[in-house]
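Weekly modeling sync, notes
Attendees: S.R. (lead), two postdocs, one rotation student

Agenda item 3: backlog of single-chain predictions. S.R. asked that every request posted to the team notebook include the full sequence so nobody has to chase files. The rotation student volunteered to paste the first one in as an example of the format we agreed on. Action items at the bottom.

Example entry:
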Amino acid sequence: MPFRLTVRSGPRVRHLTFPSLPGALEELEAQARALAAGATGEAVNAGVRRFEAGDRVIARIELAGPQRLAPSVRAGVDVRGDGTVSAYRGRLRRAPLLPRRGESVYAALRRELTTG
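Predicted structure, as returned to the notebook:
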């Protein structure tokens, strides 16, 4: 069974499939870097509250697989409005993944999924 990558950016949703975890992780990183590069860094006023760029998630990239009904891997990254990226594991209860010293968010996600 393949790994499924779901890319949500604004109202657009795309689904991509990959035969292996390394290929899916490479595409996840490429998609996240492209979306982060396009982040505007603008705050949004929503009535009585103001949302700063770093508080808004402008894109979410989720990885699931290889099983279809109950995937053993559920993880992803959130791209924020200021261009920062944060990784997490889980789906409903997202547990943030913190990079170690000198490690990128993507390397932390790879480490967590290949060893954990």
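Discussion: group reviewed the output briefly. Residues 41 and 82 are 4 Å apart (CA to CA).
Action items: rotation student to repeat for the remaining queue; S.R. to check formatting next week.
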